[in-house]
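How a chain folds remains the central question behind the approach discussed here. The record that follows shows the chain in one-letter code together with its fold in token form:
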Amino acid sequence: MTALLKDAPVDDAAKIAAQNDAFRGSIMFFNDAEDTPKGQFVMTRGVMALGSDSRLAATRAVAAFQAFTPDNDPYGFHEFGAVEVLGTTVWFKIDAYDVNYEYGSPDPGDPEQTRRVLTLLLPSEY
């Protein structure tokens, strides 16, 4: 679990998961609704170095990812996952920041107080 979501009330898990799913889907326009949570999508240097075909495949796989289980998502926030892309494992993680991207969100379940950052990274970069 990311440090920025660890203090969120358990009751908010379903709401935060739905917002994370909507945000993740928006990176490939799988979800372009007006109420999609705001945020940024970034990749590490390692993912960038994989080349354009792998970056596109990873982005598509992450946007469509639904394979959350109690083993890989124990808190139910849908904030972390792994995809296999052209023989390479790529991780994604979502962190919840305040609206200025300076601190953790005061209320990760409130889209008005939260900006998400979805990062694609290689396991070796964690």
About this structure: The helical segments are 13-26, 45-48, 52-64. The chain has a mean pLDDT of 91. Strands lie at 39-43, 80-85, 88-97, 115-121.
